[in-house]
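User: Sorry, what's this?
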Amino acid sequence: MIGFFPLKYYTPLYHYFILMVVLVVFFQLQTEGYRRTVFGVFWLGFIIIYMGLRPISYYFGDMGTYARVFSRYQQGENIDIGKDILFNLFMKYSSFFMSSHMFFLLCAFLYVYPLYLVCKKWFSNYWFYAFLLLAASFSFWTYGTNGIRSGIASSLFLLGVSRTSRFNQITWIVASLGVHLSMLLPTLAFVLAQFYNQPKKIILLWVMCIPLSLLAGGFWENFFASLGFGDERIAYLTQENIYQDDFKSTGFRWDFLLYSATAVYAGWYYITKKGFHDKVYFWLFNTYVVTNAFWILVIRANFSNRFAYLSWFMMALVIVYPLLKKRLFRRQYALLANIIMAYFAFTFLMNVIL
């Protein structure tokens, strides 16, 4: 797999592979309904191998930087304990006994495999439908190949949310913070969800953030940047995006707001119109909405994609969770097929066509 394709083909080929699977699942759901599949384990392994054994190159953004740091660790450089201590410990100790290629393969495993565990825990025999939606998400490939620390941290966070034991829950969420401190925002939102379970009011907060962002201009970016929170990544709010990282234009992104709103609407509909009540889903939904509301306030920031991801990594699960837990609609399997197709259509449009 290493270097088998020219660099420029790796990203589109991944999305063409996903397209083939989505089409198969679409027609299978339409004609046969839900069914257990052994194909999912093969697809899980394929994603890990394809993503993990890609060529090491700056073509994949920050991958080149990770490779350079890993090389310095192999040459004996001391560990950086100033930030993301768990990830740096992982990188340092990996450098003692593995090559850079094996390191990135392990990173892909730590990014993808926890998502399988989450889906298996919540959806049992139907785990593959949720996993497919995660793998078909707009930012999935990017945060497995570019924002590697953020990707691993987000998967560990979801693994924590999915655990039944409070001790295990806290352990995995703290681990996600050690991998990337940006998980502090969804962690705070998750803690809030433990004590304040009012989805309708939280949705109202999300809606109110839209005019607040429209009317206040760049106030929110400067306000949150001034707070700092002890993390230089907050400076992204006011830093120039010289790399045009993911978002090709700035300003108030109505397209991405509408994209985010699909999960908010889905959760609202499940909860208020269909009466779906599930403690874990309330945690997940409220965490998503609060975190996404923060992004709306700073939507004009040049690196706002990095803040959008702090909610988007949960989006697929917010949309699919009730459909795999309870019968809510007539011919629900056909509805799920349409949702998977529409959800991936946005991903394919943004990452391949445009």
